[in-house]
Design goal:
Blueprint (H helix, E strand, L loop, with lengths): L1 H15 L7 E4 L2 E4 L21 E2 H4 L4 E2 L21 E2 L1 H15 L3 E7 L4 H10 L20 E8 L28 H16 L2 E3 L6 E4 L15
Parallel strand pairs: 4-6
Antiparallel strand pairs: 1-2, 3-5, 6-7, 7-9, 8-9
């Protein structure tokens, strides 16, 4: 009997000496599960402006296309006026523009922004270059842009970013740019009508001399000298 018992005990000792499974660790004698890898943490850039007073349009809806012309020399004065190109609005105005953008997306269209809020000091720079009230509001009177309630914009195909034909370039001074001009190709009149109808439904009004310019018809906001920071 003993000759069978001894080999069995030897095999039992060998089995009891195998290492613990790799899936567990020992902590003070108690096995614990290996924790799964931590999920990646999303880093959110904090706003560098007063969100109670201002909304940055592309934070509200990143499908807006920005082409802030006065932050370049591609404008009628051929001079850079803004230190950098960002697009801000009073929160109520920004939400109205976002609603218009949402409606346009259903047609595969969107808005490209040429000019948004214009700080008082930048309005003064414009006046210093072009002191003509026919084209630039006097800084003492101010512009609706300087109230954070005016938009210079155009229509684009969202998929390609290509601008629709609105008849003239931005900041074209002549009767072809008037919203009252009807002696234009049908596609131009159709595109202008699309732009005007959508913006009007969301609280904006056109002006006679510039098809690209829209004023918000809600509360009259005060003029502002706040200048947005540049990266």
């Amino acid at each position: 009997m003993m000759r069978y018992l001894i080999p069995s005990l030897f095999l039992l000792l060998l089995c009891s000496c195998e290492p613990a499974p790799e899936a567990a660790t020992v902590n003070d004698g108690f096995p614990t599960e290996v924790p799964p890898p931590a999920a990646p943490v999303e880093v959110v850039t904090q706003p560098d402006f007063d969100t109670a007073q201002w909304t940055e349009l592309i934070r509200l809806d990143p499908t807006f296309i920005l082409d802030v012309r006065y932050a370049t020399d591609s404008n009628f004065m051929e001079q850079r006026i803004y230190d950098c190109g960002r697009c801000f609005y009073r929160p109520t105005v920004a939400r109205a523009l976002a609603a218009a953008q949402k409606e346009l997306r259903q047609q595969g269209l969107g808005l490209k922004m040429f000019d948004c809020y214009r700080p008082g000091p930048y309005q003064q720079r414009l006046w210093d270059v072009m002191p003509d009230a026919r084209y630039v509001a006097h800084p003492s009177r101010g512009s609706v842009h300087s109230r954070g309630a005016a938009a210079d914009l155009t229509l684009v195909e969202l998929e390609t970013g290509e601008e629709l034909d609105l008849g003239t370039p931005y900041d074209f001074f002549g009767e072809e740019a008037y919203t009252t001009t009807t002696d234009l190709p049908d596609r131009v009149l159709r595109n202008r009508r699309t732009l005007q109808d959508v913006l009007r439904r969301h609280g904006f009004a056109t002006i006679r001399t510039e098809w690209w310019h829209f004023n918000f018809t809600g509360p009259r906001f005060p003029l502002s000298d706040w200048v947005w920071p540049c990266p």
